[in-house]
């Protein structure tokens, strides 16, 4: 089965809204596309065995990309290569994209959801990237130990995250700081998307940030989930600014942010 003709013909900038308006609720009609979805910005790379009904899977299956604005930025940065750290890696889309575009690049994925861990392993293996993509099956945060993690609804891969209280869909998962996991390395790009707990991930990078060992950071501000965790809006930005980073919103809504060191990393 081929992707819908309308999505193939229209400019990439219109495909996201078209997917949500016309195709998101009829993903099952295109289920063969979910078996192997080629990536729009990484020729030769694909994601495999995607989940019909899942928003992230559906977008990738039908358009070949997810989060277009962030994808374009990462594609541009991937030309120079280096180390990409993907916190909340989900299906491994951004890590596969990064490493597929430069044979010298490496990626480290942090993912706590057991279902997503299985998907990342499958996608890394089938793209022949096992020597360049490392999976850390843990949640990242501001402490070492364990934490409650709500895996979210079974139909969605991207709605799970750290939880304050136990529920019928919560499990206990390992928790780590990036300072503890990334030793004597410079991170060229850090992408954080962990459903409200992005601030805690950044706090867990304090040592790396003080040494300006992170060249570029993309993080999300999901204020609804942040409120549930007791995290204040703007806390991450102030923390980064105090450590010598400039923070700029990527969109008008202030949901996506990019941060870079004020002083250039040598």
Unreliable segments of 5+ consecutive residues: none
Distance between the termini: 49 Å
Query: Which structural class best describes the helix and strand composition?
Result: alpha/beta
Q: So, CATH architecture of the domain at 79-261?
A: 3-Layer(aba) Sandwich
Q: What's the CATH class of the domain at 79-261, please?
A: Alpha Beta
Q: How much helix is in the residues?
A: 25-40%
Q: Helical region count?
A: 11
The pLDDT mean sits at 95
| Main β sheet profile | 7 strands, mixed
Find the CATH topology of the domain at 79-261: Rossmann fold
Task: Give the spatial strand order of the biggest sheet.
Answer: 5-4-3-10-11-13-12
Topology (elements, then pairings):
Layout lengths: L4 H5 L2 H12 L12 E3 L7 E3 L6 H9 L4 H11 L4 E5 L5 H8 L5 E5 L3 H13 L6 E4 L2 E2 L4 E6 L10 E2 L7 E7 L1 H4 L7 E4 L5 H6 L2 H5 L6 E4 L2 H7 L5 H8 L2 E5 L6 E6 L5
Parallel strand pairs: 3-4, 3-10, 4-5, 6-9, 10-11
Antiparallel strand pairs: 1-2, 7-8, 7-9, 11-13, 12-13
Helix pairs in contact: 2-3, 4-5
Write up this protein:
By secondary structure, the chain is α/β, with parallel strands linked by helices. Helices cover 33% and strands 21% of the residues. It has a domain at 79-261: Vaccinia Virus protein VP39 (Rossmann fold, 3-Layer(aba) Sandwich), CATH 3.40.50. It is built from eleven helices and 13 strands. The strands form three sheets. A seven-stranded mixed sheet has the order 5-4-3-10-11-13-12, with helices on both faces. Strands 6-9-7-8 form a four-stranded mixed sheet. Strands 1-2 form a two-stranded antiparallel sheet. Helix 2 packs across helix 3 and helix 4 packs parallel to helix 5 (93-100).
């Amino acid at each position: 089965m081929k992707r819908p003709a309308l999505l193939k013909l229209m400019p990439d900038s219109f495909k996201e809204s078209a997917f949500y308006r016309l195709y998101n609720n009829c993903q099952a009609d295109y289920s063969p596309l979910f078996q192997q979805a080629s990536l729009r910005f990484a020729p030769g790379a694909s994601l495999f065995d995607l989940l019909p009904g899942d928003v992230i899977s559906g977008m990738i299956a039908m358009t070949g990309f997810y989060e277009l604005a962030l994808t374009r930025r990462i594609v541009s940065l991937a030309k120079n290569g280096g180390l990409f750290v993907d916190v909340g890696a989900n299906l491994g889309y951004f890590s596969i994209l990064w490493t597929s575009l430069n044979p010298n690049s490496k990626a480290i994925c942090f993912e706590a959801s057991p279902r997503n861990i299985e998907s990342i392993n499958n996608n890394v293996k089938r793209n022949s990237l096992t020597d360049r993509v490392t999976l850390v099956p843990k949640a990242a945060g501001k402490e070492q130990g364990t934490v409650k993690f709500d895996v979210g609804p079974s139909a969605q891969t991207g709605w799970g995250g750290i939880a304050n209280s136990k529920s019928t869909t919560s499990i206990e998962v390992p928790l780590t700081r990036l300072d503890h996991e990334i030793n004597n390395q410079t991170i060229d790009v850090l992408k954080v998307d962990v459903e409200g707990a992005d601030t805690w991930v950044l706090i867990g990078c304090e040592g790396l940030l003080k040494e300006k060992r992170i060249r570029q950071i993309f993080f999300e501000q999901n204020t609804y989930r942040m409120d549930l965790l007791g995290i204040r809006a703007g806390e991450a930005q102030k923390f980064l600014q105090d450590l010598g980073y400039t923070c700029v919103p990527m969109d008008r809504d202030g949901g996506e942010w990019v941060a870079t060191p004020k002083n250039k990393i040598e």
